[in-house]
Amino acid sequence: SQKWVLMVTAQTPTNIAVIKYWGKRDENLILAINDSISVTLDPAHLCTTTTVAVSPAFNQDRMWLNGKEISLSGGRYQNCLREIRARANDVEDKKKGVKIAKKDWENLHVHVASYNNFPTAAGLASSAAGFACLVYSLAKLMNVQEDNGRLSAIARQGSGSACRSLYGGFVKWVMGKEENGSDSIAVPLVDEKHWDELVIIIAVVCSRQKETSSTSGMRETVETSALIEHRAKEVVPKRIIQMEEAIQKRDFATFTHLTCADSNQFHAVCLDTSPPIFYMNDTSHRIISCVEKWNRSEGTPQVAYTFDAGPNAVLIARNRTYAALLLQRLLFHFPPNSETDLNSYVIGDKSLMED
Ligand code: PMV
Questions:
Q1: Looking at the domain assignment, is residue 34 inside a domain?
Q2: Same domain, yes or no, for 148 and 254?
Q3: Is there a contact between 179 and 287 (Cβ–Cβ < 8 Å)?
Q4: What is the residue range of 112's domain?
Q5: What's the pLDDT band for 45 if we cut at 50, 70, 90?
Q6: Which one of 165, 214, 222, 314 would you pick to mutate in the ligand 1 pocket, going by the greatest count of ligand atoms within 8 A of its CB?
Q7: What is the predicted ipTM?
Q8: 354 within a domain of the structure (yes/no)
Q9: Ligand 1 centre from 6 Cα, in Å?
Q10: Does the beta carbon of 280 sit less than 6 angstroms from any atom of ligand 1?
Q11: At which of 156, 190, 224 does a domain end?
């Protein structure tokens, strides 16, 4: 019969890079010019929920993002759909009396409904959670047998940073050497329990969409910046080694030093781009000064900051005590709805909220 529908729903958190990915060596396959390391957030706060459905009644692939239909014709969606379909297997739902043979998937269409519980494309890595969740849920629907590493290489073709959201905890995206991208995959470093005293607070400085997409920004930086090659070849490889060690040892001072320096260097290569790209604004700069001053007065760093392709501050506190003190400070210096455009705080970790 034409009446059946099979559905799968999945939830994927976003991730925040502490050693940034910026620059592609292959734009179609999305292959990076350097390794990167990120932390995956708690799914309760910043995540994408995606439902994928298949039915013989559907006559084309369609997708809705936050309730609005979007086009799936772009290369990134097409690459993900094609790669997952190519790995589909037999599926049987006895209750519904549905049997889909491996070869049937070519002729079946999917409908996708995806929701972000945070602002889309405002530098909060919405595409990371989005593509990771799309690939993961389609893989479940189509009974794809690949492990998360192989799925990460497919999610990567949707959005580079998405490959890191297939795992929790701290994750490394290895840039790889192969031209076909087969070794450009995410690797879990430590799981979410390893360093669970960290608390992440996101100061939503501005929830509007960013002006320069990461794709065009990266392209312009790679084409025009005199500093990007030095960063990718000389600086990041050393930082990756140091960051992995700092994470293993839970060495917060080194972690903070590397995280802040890498965020600042990423924004420096943006400024070194022609025409220059400004992702941070005055409020972002004031938050940096405030955290730097505080860390110096404490003698040892208590809070790390990092900014992606937008003005929102991601603040990582050493523990709950410092997270609470940080919030106090932020609320004092940057009260929500003041004349600064800072409008809300998101707690990216469960620990502060639970008791
Ligand atoms: O994967 P994209 O195109 O969303 O690029 C992400 C770039 C940064 O967020 C700035 C850095 C990173 O590694 O996530």
A1: yes
A2: no
A3: no
A4: 6-190
A5: confident
A6: 214
A7: 0.99
A8: no
A9: 33
A10: no
A11: 190
